[in-house]
Amino acid sequence: MGDNMIEDKLTNKNLCTGCHACMNICPQDCVEMKFDEEGFLYPRVNIEYCIQCNKCVNICPSLKKLPEAMGNEMLIAYACQAKDDKIRLISSSGGIFSLIAQEVISNEGIVFGAGFDKEFNLKHFYSDDMNVILDKFTGSKYVQSNIGTTYKQVKDFLDNDRLVLFTGTPCQVAGLKSYLGKDYDNLVCVDLVCHGVPSPFMWNKYKEYREREAKSTAKRISFRHKKYGWKRYSVLFEFANNTEYLHTLDKDMYMRAFLKDIALRPSCYNCKFKGYKRYSDMTLADFWGIEEVTDSFKDDLGTSLITLNSLKGKKIFETLNDSVKSEEVDIKKALEYNKAALKSAEKHPSRDEFMNRLKTMEFDELVDLYCKDSFSLRLKSVMINLLIKTNTFNLAKKVLKRNN
Ligand SMILES: Cc1cc2nc3c(=O)[nH]c(=O)nc-3n(C[C@H](O)[C@H](O)[C@H](O)COP(=O)(O)OP(=O)(O)OC[C@H]3O[C@@H](n4cnc5c(N)ncnc54)[C@H](O)[C@@H]3O)c2cc1C
């Protein structure tokens, strides 16, 4: 430990999720979030102004005893789809986030979620305008979102009796709940099943690579475009010069690096916020393996898995009745097909090397070097894509099992 013991405690890289609770709680404003060499935010404590109150350490959800602190539990699960296909089309899975947001807005509430700023940096914002919510928050962005001072803003709205919906990764919801330190009837929290979050520095490098290739600046980006379906979703860039880039997840360099677990935040490999115990009222996920659980949701526009983790979550879900097609499912069976809900991603053996070289190597060369698929894997992927295209997904799964 160095001279700055508080900072040393806060910045243990196996634990710190970058949730910003420490920064939001500091009464002296002496905790700042700074990017490390890999492009992840960590707290820096200015000891000159620190009064050693230890609020930052005591509030840190990663330093708390878990899961005791997490009051809620995934108890009931539903397969569901927004009835409005236009909503599903712009959402990652079944569009349930947007329906919950709509419900909160119609009750004069406010919604916090992750959206891009003008330079495509991902940040948490708030809005009570449904058009902004659909445009900015709807759809997953596979990069860590910067929380900034949103926990303080949430508290201000709550103290002014405004209904608040806060959405984010499980560690961000944990950070908010820890910061607030008490339950509020007017707060609804929705977290996501989270695979892990890649480095904002890597995201920026990839975005710049795409802009160089297109000789133009990006004006719209989607990680979950559904032109080729929900299961084979695509990354879309629309550029100012009216060109576009659209490639399925297996062909897109960024998604290959993400899904190989080679660029996740260190704490994601040992995530403390997974499992049945949750800080949130509801948890949203893609319903991978839906065809093994029920026959009722056959199209490829997207189906969500929602778990209801508190009475509040259950009540809100019931109010969506008219706008959602849903079916209760066995929660254990549903989660069998979604490992990320319960288990951390496994660290890629070359992860640290990859991250070290991120600053010096070109993005395409780096991904070529570290994220190459073997010939047999590529062949498997071609076969599976073909089978999915011809709607024989169950056969595809059997092929996959036989080959593993
Ligand atoms: C980094 C990340 C990893 C994920 N990993 C998995 C997984 O392994 N398995 C799985 O089943 N589902 C995963 N999801 C969740 C999934 O992609 C969908 O978000 C979920 O199915 C809800 O879809 P929807 O159609 O209801 O709503 P959508 O409209 O797609 O959901 C959007 C919501 O996600 C929030 N959001 C978007 N990006 C971020 C971000 N980077 N950080 C915090 N909040 C964000 C928005 O604020 C909004 O509330 C992940 C999501 C993210 C962001």
Characterization of this structure:
The chain has 404 residues and is of the alpha+beta class. It folds into three domains: 5-59, Alpha-Beta Plaits (2-Layer Sandwich), CATH 3.30.70; 64-372, no CATH class; 373-404. It has 17 helices and 15 strands. The chain has helices at residues 5-10, 21-25, 55-59, 85-90, 96-106, 130-137, 150-159, 170-180, 200-214, 253-259, 290-293, 311-319, 331-336, 351-357, 363-370, 375-389, 393-403; strands at residues 31-35, 41-45, 72-73, 76-82, 110-116, 122-127, 164-168, 187-192, 218-225, 234-239, 244-248, 277-278, 282-286, 304-308, 324-329. Strands 6-5-7-8-13-14-4-15 form an eight-stranded mixed beta sheet, sandwiched between helices. Strands 9-10-11 form a three-stranded antiparallel beta sheet. The chain has a two-stranded antiparallel ribbon with strand order 1-2. Strand 9 (218-225) and strand 10 (234-239) form a beta hairpin. Helix 10 crosses helix 15 (363-370) and helix 16 (375-389) packs antiparallel against helix 17. The chain is globular, with a radius of gyration of 21 Å. Residues 399-404 have low confidence and may be disordered. The chain binds flavin-adenine dinucleotide. Residues 91-98, 113-114, 122, 137-143, 145, 167-169, 192-195, 197, 284-286, 288, 304, 338, 340 line the site of flavin-adenine dinucleotide.
